[in-house]
Design brief:
Elements lengths: L6 E4 L2 E4 H7 L5 H15 L3 H9 L3 H7 L5 H15 L4 H9 L2 H8 L4 H15 L3 H9 L3 H8 L9 H15 L9 H4 L3 H10 L3 H15 L5 H13 L2 H7 L7 H17 L2 H9 L2 H9 L1
Antiparallel strand pairs: 1-2
Helix pairs in contact: 1-2, 2-5, 4-5, 5-8, 7-8, 8-11, 11-14, 13-14, 14-17
Length: 292
């Protein structure tokens, strides 16, 4: 439990947050894990606690714990870092950036699935803060481990929690808000992963973020030829019919809206053959049904 201003309770009395931070460097893994758990709970929704932890020097031991062979401690350390990155005070996420955490987060995508999931959350929080941090995440070569480890294109889909956070991370990388948006050429390696999720995922949250991400890319910073290639990939894999089906009135609005936005964006940039393919796939019939 957390008391007033940086004070947490344990059996035998209260423990201040700065003491918890110091205990992260203890040689006893049990002590480290206990205090990491307490700090994760304290920072999960409190920008004040995040600021106090940073002032107490948490970033140094946290960086070390991200590489520990103890998976439970590694997960908790990554979770604390995720809380810091997701703080509603932008200075907290920037402190992580300036301390060199973004490449450390990318390295987490090479670890166990539990650690990968936390790495994706941390990277997504960073990418969603501003264009400089989004560029830093891309510069840290996040796409390769994302495509090979987290959501492999040619292997079984990961568990739903990993699908969801990976789709959300890609959405933050591609959204272009705040501007400027990354170039489509820079983001195009993500397209096979997105198409795989669109084709094979059956989780609505995953599909919603996947649809939004593709809609951002279709109107992204690319040449007409690059944009047409993306449209052609959707057409060639018969995914347009799938997306048109997601506009059905009986489906969840969080699916229907990004599906409609994606198809509208495709129609606004594609060439005549692709537009004809949309019509053949039943777009106009679905639109008519939606408007009734």
């Amino acid at each position: 439990l957390r008391g007033s201003r940086g004070v947490m309770w344990e059996e035998g009395g209260e423990v201040d947050l700065a003491t918890r931070v110091r205990r992260l460097a203890d040689a006893d893994h049990a002590v480290v894990l206990e205090n990491a758990l307490a700090l994760r709970e304290a920072t999960i929704s409190s920008a004040e606690a995040v600021g106090e932890a940073i002032d107490a020097g948490i970033l140094g031991p946290l960086a070390d714990l991200l590489t520990t062979p103890n998976e439970n401690i590694q997960v908790e350390a990554a979770w604390i870092a995720t809380n810091i990155a997701g703080s509603n005070n932008p200075a907290h996420c920037r402190a992580l950036f300036e301390a060199g955490f973004i490449p450390r987060f990318t390295a987490l995508l090479q670890c166990s699935p539990r650690v990968q999931e936390q790495g994706c959350w941390a990277l997504g929080n960073c990418a969603g803060h501003d264009s400089e941090l989004r560029a830093a995440v891309l510069e840290a070569n996040v796409m390769e481990p994302l495509m090979t480890n987290v959501v492999p294109v040619d292997a079984e889909l990961p568990p739903v929690p990993q699908q969801r956070v990976a789709a959300w991370l890609m959405s933050n990388l591609c959204r272009g808000d705040p501007p400027p948006a990354p170039s489509l050429a820079r983001l195009s390696p993500l397209v096979p992963v997105l198409l795989r999720l669109l084709r094979d995922a059956d989780d609505f949250d995953t599909l919603a973020d996947t649809l939004w991400t593709l809609s951002y890319l279709v109107l992204g910073d690319g040449t007409p030829e690059e944009l047409q290639r993306l449209v052609d990939q959707l057409t060639e894999e018969s995914l347009l019919e799938l997306v048109i089906g997601m506009m059905a009135p009986h489906l969840w609005n969080d699916i229907r809206l990004p599906a409609t936005r994606l198809l509208g964006n495709v129609a606004s940039v594609c060439n005549a053959p692709a537009l004809a393919a949309l019509v053949r796939a039943g777009l106009m019939n679905q639109v008519a049904g939606t408007l009734q």
